Amino acid sequence: MTFRKTMTAAVALSTALATTQPAWAADGVTFGVLVPLTGELGEFGKIVADAVQLGVDEINAAGGTKCGPVSIAVADTGGSAEQAIREANKMIDSEGVVAILGPASGEMVALVDLAKRKKTPMMSPYAGTITLNEIGGDYVYRTVSSDLGDGAASGLWLTEKGYKSVAFLVQNEESTISPAQVAKEAVEAAGIELTDFIVYNPGQPSYQAELISVLSHNPDAIYLAGGQESGVTVLKEAAAGGFEGEWLLTADLAVPEVFETLDPRILNDRAYVEIAEADSSLPEFKAFSQLTMDKTGKAPGPFAANSYDMAMLSAIALEAADACTGEALNAKLRGVTEGGEKVSTFAAAKEAIAAGTDVDYEGASGPLTLDESGTPAGAYMVKKATDGAWVDETFYPASAFE
Amino acid sequence: MTLFAQFVLTGIVTGCFLILATIGFSFTRRVEGFLNIAHAELLGVSAFTTWALNKLLGWNIFPSAFVAIVFTAFVGLAIGRIVYDPIRRFGPSVMLITSVGVAYAIGGTMDALIGTGIRTLDIPLASSIRFWGLRITNYQLLVVVLAVVACASLALFLNKSKTGLAIRAMSANPELAASRGIDVQKTSRATWLISSGMAGLAGVMLGVIATLSTDIAFHQILQILAVAILAGLGSLYAVILSGLIVGVAMDVSVFWIPAGYRPLIAFAVVILVLLIRPQGLAGSAQSK
Lengths: 402, 288
Hints:
Number of domains of chain A: 2
Number of helices of chain A: 16
Radius of gyration of chain B: 19 Å
Largest sheet of chain A: 7 strands, mixed
Oligomer: heterodimer
Number of helices of chain B: 11
Distance between the termini of chain A: 71 Å
Strand content of chain B: under 5%
Structural class of chain B: mainly alpha
Strand content of chain A: 15-25%
Number of strands of chain A: 15
């Protein structure tokens, strides 16, 4: 009798849970947007959140997913892995998000275990860390290529530019050291003199000690892989120290704010920045760029196309999935990036899937075929500082590195 | 040889900045009797106040810096009165832990008020002064001059003024000082104003030489602690020697070993000195 009562209660409870669990699914689904909104990378976090919202608006304008309209829940990582884990748990447990979009490299690596344990896919538009080359794939994806590609693009540009000597100044982080090593190998292989390879710690008031040796060798160019705070200080101090050569900077310094914080003479016509970027000649990118202009009045910021594509990929995978859960989304995610009818909008994907056709999403950031580590092949742009803005200089499609 | 001398010169500048950043911290430790971890955040308060006046309101750097130092001094005084005075009876450990909370509160407030990204002051690009094959920028020279002036002024104040003598008496023996008629409240207020004002001065220099982000001030706390511990956690004058040792050791180390180990060198020096003199450079066994 007691056993029967217990079983009855258990069945009733299971039924109640089964009824309540997909409650969010009936009303729609939520994507978590977990980005650094404060701290040094805050500018990027806002760009990502806005671009995901733009994508979600397009998805909902096309009638939403089969799980209902999509909404987003935004949280700030503050650039901290601990805070990212805390917020991700909250998003999954309290808000029932089916995917988490937007963490940066350090946070993505920290979230891998949680993503697999909670069966909730995580996707980043800018986490290039090579650690994800090893542990990415199942539940862990990105719409940007690996840092190794950044390094290859930087190396290619440095060798093509015809410099005789180059110094490397690299912030002490895995995400900057890995690509710098790749670029360094390319420079050495090309027979260019490597005058210094200095790894420095960020957060210092001054980097004069790190610059002494670099400036004493007076290289033709300095490859600076640093954050905004350290990078701007290094640029100022090198200029004050009499450096008159050129610069190749990495993605963190690709923001317009750099021009507001530096004397324009330091950058204009002698600084370049290398960044993973969509092929602006692609019709998908042009459409996205026009959409961004129409909605915000501004051109897309760094990684905006990659961020928009995260929302699209998640929604298309959900549309193709058997259920409105992170697990079902994960099962379809790589599949919707290869081997089917090519689509470039959610509306077209939705229509094709409804007709029983496999789809291959080609996004605003380019063809997004995800490999086994959940990473697409990358295209890169080198931009030149011209009249206080970054202007396109040389584009390297993914095929340039084959 | 010139290259090595350049590292030494840069190290002296680094040391002078550390002196400016640490002297107020050490002063609080000596008089108030606890490690005020929030001291580093006061550098940020001053740096961003200077930035707001200079960049947003378009003030000249000098009045901006002056107002920022005074403002920071009063922010420090207010925190001392509102937060630390009521918990003084619980002892230095509780005050230290509270100061960590105060640091987070100040940091969070700055995050909310300042927002994301980086900031720099509206001042001319530094220019280099060259001599004997060496190079120093005008802003680096300013750091050295201010460190010398600040230390000399503080020494004069503590040795010659009535309030300074009262502060020294209170730091040596608060009960005895109170029984001899020293106004403990007034002396404590003067201590907070001076130590926070010193943080304000260091914060202005942080704004002048560095690129500001809301977390850069807190990044300085480990080196401040290293200098203070090396100095003996009680001595003000030893802070000068300690700051120079840590600054020169860190920067000269780059001559031989990778720059990524710079922070490690600061603490390696501290550990080495403490192995020989556990009380620090100038501390005594009885030092608080």
